[in-house]
């Protein structure tokens, strides 16, 4: 299918772009949850995963379906930490075996990780800019059967 990928309904509601006539009534509704960290993560990464998942769940963003994206974030975060430690240990520039001075290769790794982390953070609404585009949906009022009848009648 050509064109833009459709946004899930819960994201449309959060962003404030939901239009009743364009809602997919059959779409599964994800449940806010704090999934267990994947086994392949080391202890420090599992702790970061749990910390982030709990924070995202408190804000209504984390579901079981998001565990893979959060695991990728944590793996990249761990790689960034390791690269930053090497940059701190060796400095921003290093000497090659030929005596040439070059940028520390770990600095490039750290910068790449930062860019990847920023991309995933934007998906979860963890940056000021991405948060400014999010609007929380108004709490649903008690359904009015007559209003439902009128609304459904217009769709036909």
UniProtKB/TrEMBL annotation:
<dbReference type="Pfam" id="PF05119">
    <property type="entry name" value="Terminase_4"/>
</dbReference>
<dbReference type="InterPro" id="IPR006448">
    <property type="entry name" value="Phage_term_ssu_P27"/>
</dbReference>
<protein>
    <submittedName>
        <fullName>P27 family predicted phage terminase small subunit</fullName>
    </submittedName>
</protein>
<feature type="compositionally biased region" description="Basic and acidic residues">
    <location>
        <begin position="135"/>
        <end position="156"/>
    </location>
</feature>
<feature type="region of interest" description="Disordered">
    <location>
        <begin position="130"/>
        <end position="156"/>
    </location>
</feature>
């Amino acid at each position: 299918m050509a064109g833009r990928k459709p946004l899930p309904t819960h994201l449309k509601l959060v962003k404030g772009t939901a239009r009743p006539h364009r809602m997919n009534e059959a779409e599964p509704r994800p449940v806010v949850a704090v999934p267990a960290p994947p086994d392949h993560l080391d202890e420090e990464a599992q702790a970061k995963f749990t910390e982030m998942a709990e924070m995202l769940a408190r804000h209504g963003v984390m579901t079981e379906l998001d565990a893979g994206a959060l695991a990728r974030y944590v793996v990249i975060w761990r790689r960034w930490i390791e690269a930053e430690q090497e940059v701190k240990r060796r400095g921003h520039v290093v000497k090659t075996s030929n005596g040439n001075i070059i940028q520390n290769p770990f600095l490039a790794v750290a910068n790449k990780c930062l860019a990847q982390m920023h991309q995933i953070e934007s998906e979860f609404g963890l940056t000021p800019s991405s948060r400014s585009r999010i609007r929380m949906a108004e709490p649903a009022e008690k359904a009015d059967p007559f209003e439902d009848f009128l609304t459904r009648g217009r769709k036909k």
